[in-house]
Each structure stands twice: as C-alpha cells, then as structure tokens.
Amino acid sequence: MARSLLEELPRIVSEGRQAAERILEGLERRHRVRLQTREWVLPARDAAAADWIAQVQRQDALQAAATGTQGWCNRLIYGDNLLAMAALLAGDADTPSLRGAVDLIYIDPPFDSKADYRTRITLPGVELEQRPTVIEQFAYSDTWSDGTASYLRMIVPRLVLMRELLADTGSIYVHLDGHVSHYVKIALDEVLGKPQFRNEIAYCYSGGGVPRQEMPRKHDTIFWYSKGAHWTFNTQYRPYSEGTLQRGRTAVKGADAQLRTEGTPINDWWPDVKKITSPTDPEKLYYDTQKSEDLLRRIIEMATNPGDLVLDLFGGSGTTAAVAEKLGRRWITSDLGKPACMIMRKRLIDQGARPFLYQAIGDYQVEAAKSHLGRSFRIGDLSEIVLSLYGAQPLPAEENPLRNLGQIGFGGRKTLVLADSPNKLTGDATLRRAIAQRDHLMGGWDRVVVLGWNFEPSIGQSLAALKDPNLEVLVIPPDLLDRLRKKGGIEKLRGQVRFSSLQYLTLKPSQRAPTAHGERLTVTLDNYVLLSPEAINLDEDHRLRLHKVLAAEPLAMIEYWAVDPDYDGQVFRSVWQDYRGNTDSDGDPLRVIAQARFDVPARSGARRVCVRAVDVFGFESEVVQDVPEPTA
C-alpha cells in the first residue's frame, strides 16, 4: 500500500536537506559552480543615439567595469536556481560569497500543476504556440511528475540554500495558493524553524468567473518567515476608507484624537493590492504568473531599506527586480525559462534600469551530468552518451583516447562524428581539427559531423569561410541531460533526440564616421538563419506557418539585439539595444529596427564590434566584425 504524503514528508525533508548539504560541501571544491557573464547591459532605448551625455555616462560605466571599480552590479541569471544559489554562495575572484548577505527573498514558485505554460509568439501575420521544453519548464515536468511529493522534493533543498543566503535580519516571503501551501508551510517550519514564522498574508483579489459547484477562489497565501530573532520591518499603511475619514472629521469637531496622516496600518489581510487581470492594464506583459508592482512594492518597502539586497529565484516577468530597481534596492533575479529571461531583460531596459549583468550557469551541462552520472563522471562518459543518441558507434579505443569520436556508415558513405566538450566553445579551431581528422584519421572519411554544446561568437563566420560541403555542425539539445534523467536511461530516449542545425546572424559592413565629439557607428543586420524549425517544440501546423515567415522575412524572428562597439572577446557589454515592443524606435511592436546608429568615443585603429541577437524562441547568436578606422 502506498504511503500517504504526510508519511512521506519527513523523508522528503530529510533528503532535501541532504541534497542541499552536498551542494554546500561542494562550495570549497576547485571545480565549484560558477556564473558566466553573458552580457553586461547598459540600458539604452535611444535608437538614433544623438544624446552624447548619455553615451559618455555609459562609457564611464564601461571604464569602471574594466578597472574593477564599478562596485555592486545587479544580476539577471538564466538557469536552474539551485545551481544559481550554489554559485552565489560560492562566490568567485570578482564577487565574494553572498552567504548571509540577502535582506529579502521573495519567491512565487509555480504551484498549479494543470497550468498551461505554452509560450505564445506573435510574428507578422502569424500566431504560434511553443510548447514548453523540459529544461525550461522543469517545474511542470519533474516537479509535478509525482504530484505534490515531487514538488516538495524540488522546493526543500532550495529553501535550505535560501536560508544560507539570508542575512541574520533578513526575511523570506513565499507566495502560493491552495494547491500546495499547507505542505510547504510544514517544510518552511522544518527548514527555517517554526519560531521564525511571522505571519500568513491573504492576498485577496476580485474578477474572474463564478464556479457553479464551489465558492470562487479569491486569494493567494504569502508565508512570511524571518531568519533570526530580529528582522527588518517598516510599517505600511493603506488609505483610510471614506467611512473612517468621516468618523475622523466628526471626532476632530468633538476635540477628540486626530487620524494618522499615513493612513491605516496594514494587517495580514490585503484586499487593497491590485492583481493584474485586465488586458488593458499598462503593466500587463502577457506572462501567465505576472504579479502587480503594487504587491511587490508593499513587500519590498515593508521588509527592506534603501540599498538592501532583494532576491527572487523564480523571476517570471521580472516584477520583483523592476520594483526593487525603482525603490533603490539592489537585486538579483533568476529563472530557468528563456522567455522569462527575455521578458525581464526587455522590461528592465525599457524602464531605464541601472547597468546590470545577464549571467548563466557556468558549465551547466557538466553540473547536470554530475547530477545524473555522479560526481565522479568524466567528460568522455558524456561524449559517449551523445554519440550513442546520435546513432554513432564509437571508434576503437586506440584511435579514440578521449572517447569523443564515433562513426556512421550509410549508403556506402562513411561519416566521422565528433562530440565536442561542454567545457569549451566549439569554434574555428575545432572545425579545422575535425576536417583534418576526416581527411586523415583511419584512412579518411567522406564527411564529418561536429556536435557542440556551446559555440564561439564567430562560428557562423567560420563556417562561411571554410565553405566545406562535407562538414556539418549540429547543436546538442540543451535539455538532453534533463530528459535523460527524466526518462531513466539512454534506451528510453533513443530515437527521440533531435540534433538541430546551428542558428547564426550576418551583418552588412559596419561604418564609422568622425563627429565633433568622437565618432558615429552604424551597424546593420543582414540576415538571420534560424536553428532548425524541426527542433522547436511546435505542432506541425505551427511549424509550417513558421517556415513561411522564415522564407519571407527572416529578420522578423529577432526578438532582441544589442551592440558592443569595443568587444574584448570576454564579456559582451551592450551599450545599444533594440527589441520587439520598443515602439519608440520605429512604432512597430512586431519587428526590431535593422540598423543601429549611435555615437561612441573615438579610438585609433580597427574597432572590434560584436552584435548579439536573441530570436523569439530564446536562441542566441553573435557575430563579430573588425571595422577599420575612418579615413580623413
């Protein structure tokens, strides 16, 4: 007979604690989890960029970053929040550990197992729906695979790490509804301590239909816990009702006590904070779990002071970061969904946020492999899995010491397959080595296929320059290890994995022209080649619609693009951005502008310009150009 959830709960909490302890023990290891900075964003909505003062301010910020004097920088992190917290706790040479440094954690973890989290994408003349991938929606695959029990297995180790990040006077607010709130309350008592429970807040709202056989559900629950015996608390007030004001006016006439000027101190019943329901609400971003700025403003102002650090590990639409920014708090937010990270990045740029970092989990695939294969795994183990799922047989050991080479024979043609390491970027050197092995290894091969996890920014240019018809580069699915873990083995996943073609961007020749204060840079998009549509999680009808858009207007696939005018080959520093929905640029909500024209300080010699683009499905591509100095 199956055990009840209440019987399972002690073991779930114990195992969650053990999982968190293993992560904490690994923080001192040489190969601990790190964050990679994918972009240093200096928000600039101005498309024409005639504002020289703004350009100078951005350049000053870049100089501060280059000299290490910029101080704190807010962060948007893409990836599993368990790994993100491990990296924040570990710290690195540039950023110390944030253990005990976070003043407020607000989380709104997904809690509806039946929710529809497909991404709705609007292209010119076409509406698409992308089904969630496993890696981007782990909360609706692994988290709900065994109902509430698996949800609790997900949340408990994360709560343990959150407690480690909290300052001694810090608080955590956990936003849930009736699906799992009672069970999570027990887990919170176990992890943070029952004496640290401060309150249960009822976040009330109106609107919606009226169920026929039950009462309408009109509130969420927010659990508030402090880490220690002392915590930050700033009393918040709501405006007086008209009845209270009338009674106050009457009391004043009778020389009685006057009303407070601030209003009525709030209690744990919040009927006055709006919920985003109307499609005409100016805040609405069409993100299913979006919370209102009023809600986060109340929580942040109540639990923190200016300059304090706020953390949201299920960032969603980015309301926490957006409000923290407006209130002068420091912030970190993360999400596993690429669409969510894209929405957050655009939202922060749109509101003119201070410069912030867009980061990802360093060596994510290595960490996922360790989780699946054990901490003693080797890269060769992972390469053998990739080759097997691609359908290649391994080469003899004497010819294949790294275990990353395989072979396929079909129709009288021999194909060499190279599975590159997740620890490195697949680029020009890898491609040239693969060609040499194709031509000389074991008497030569007809063609070679390179399977890569991550790619150098100039990979598209490298492929174009090589012009080798017997070289193919394919992308290893980023959710491969998550799917492998969920399926329980290679055999159950065989035949279901698609290795897709590489997406890449091309530019027209960029131009530099002298100005009174420096020079003007003009960068123009040329073409965008999408990652194979067959690899995107669409149904057949929507895939056909996508093909039509690709054929007619490939640049319409671009969701966001940014320019670094002085790329150092390490950190992409974007000082100009445009994105769909930035109607200040062109008035067109469905397209980005294809040309960036902005002023930069003059410099001698060639300028290395890097452009990064993100398409509507969240896939990134980069291209680098060396632009010669303008002639007099």
Measured on Cα atoms, how large is the radius of gyration?
A: 27 Å
Q: How many distinct helices?
A: 17
- Point out poorly predicted stretches: 47-53, 65-69, 134-142
Q: Count the strands?
A: 29
Query: Could you say how many structural domains there are in total?
Result: 3
| CATH H-level superfamily title of the largest domain | Vaccinia Virus protein VP39
State mean pLDDT (0 to 100 scale).
84
CATH topology (level 3) name of the largest domain: Rossmann fold
Please give the order of strands in the largest beta sheet: 11-7-8-6-3-12-13-2-14-1-25
CATH architecture of the largest domain: 3-Layer(aba) Sandwich
Which bin fits the share of residues in helices? 25-40%
Oligomer: single chain
Class by SSE composition? alpha/beta
Q: What is the name of the CATH class of the largest domain? A: Alpha Beta
Strand content: 25-35%
Question: What kind of sheet is the major sheet?
Answer: 11 strands, mixed
Coarse shape:
globular
Distance between the termini: 85 Å
Pfam family, one: N6_N4_Mtase
Domain DNA methylase N-4/N-6: 102-343
Enzyme class: transferase
Protein name: site-specific DNA-methyltransferase (adenine-specific)
